[in-house]
Amino acid sequence: MFRKQTAARGSVTVFASLTLLLVASFLLALLEAARVEGLESYADMNRVNAMESVFSGYNRELFEEYGVFLLDGGCGSGTLQLSEIGGRLLEVSQKNLRPSASGRVWKETQNFYQMDVRDAAVTHYLLATDYNGAPFRRMAAESMKFQFPIELARQVKDGFAAADRAMEQGARSRAALADAETDMEAARERQAQEQADTSPPGPLTVSGSEHVENPIEAVKKLKETDLLTLMLPEGSSVSAKAIVGADTLERRRLCQGNEPWRESGGWYETLCYQQFLKTHFSCYTSDEAGGGALDYELEYIQAGKSSDRENLKKVVQELLLLREGANFLYLQTDAAKKEEAYAAATALLAATGLAAAAPALAQGILAAWAFCESVVDVRTLLAGKKVPWMKTAESWSSSLSGLVTALTGGVQTGTQTEGEDYGGYLQKLLYLKSERILNYRAMDLLEQQLRQREGYTHVRMDAMVLFLRAEFIYEAQPLFSAMVTLRKLETDRFAYKGVAQYGYLSED
Hints:
By secondary structure, this protein is an alpha+beta fold. The chain contains 16 helices and six strands. Strand 3 (205-206) and strand 4 form a beta hairpin.
């Protein structure tokens, strides 16, 4: 009925105790080794999260207005502050590693991967203005690829290439005009020598009395006038806005990044960038002004002058040359107009005895005719109408007879309904500009646009960051290995060093 209870006795030998201690140390060392690997992975994730968090602070205004991601490395001051960026990385990293224990879950659980970040420093960085603005260019082009697929780009590619040939023809046309002026001067001198009268020679004549209008001399006088005023539509006005030219990216000293750059652009990136400019910047014929420091933004990118009027004047001159080349090229294919020009040249030289110079003079007359037709074309474009790239006999507007009189008699425009408008021709001019000019001047406009807003008075595009590489230093205390050890550790903390990089461009 009753069981006798006895106390159990146990004992362990010293050898067994040491063995257990050795086994415990081994197992805890394995746990610590696994924890060390986990700490490294945890630090890797922390670095990525910190970089993403900092880069999420991109300039919202630039993204909403232009669709580009740019991090203001100047923090509104206009001066690149790498230490400030490093401080933000350090702050974000530490908050992620040591979140506040305000919730019940954090109070009742143990994080075995507790560590601290002791330093975060930026070592490499890429700015929007580096490498002549190539990073900004790629960013802008990337923003347009969904709206401007490569199939559509192929359709307009040949049109841009034709602009280069037209500019060459324009130079050839003006050379022909200059040669013709030289020939006419020689003819005038010879006529003066043969005349018995010593008075200064008058206009060249045919049969001694019939006056022949010389389009070359008339065009020379026309070029000495204010061509912008001559070509503007009646009743139109020109913007009076201006910027400080000395503060543009082309003229001031820029901050420089130290991250290598790999060129990978091509014709598609070039055309996408052209589409970016066309989409986000205004011009003279835009329905609404850009609302920035300048109204004629595309004209500024093309001409680079400090005022809207100067930019428009320069663009008009370049449009004249572009159309002059295309028109001169067409005249070389029109046999009837070439014959008309040759007849006029022969008539002008009839009284001089220099009939052999008629072919060269005829080319000069064709060049003068091409110039006058180009005046009509540019007038048409500025009026918001279209001009075909290559003329035909039906679309040709001017006649050789009374050519200059018709031009100076009032504002006249073409009547074509097909072809390209002012914006299309301006795109062709922009295509011929160097990448550096296009990139810097476009960023000038972004900079000026931002400076008009509160809090961005001193912003600078050469403080805008697209890529960062930073070095982090972490520290963590031993956990498992500190519980049981046969030998005191040489250090009471683990240190980790790691590198993280992040950028808005996928190629980086």
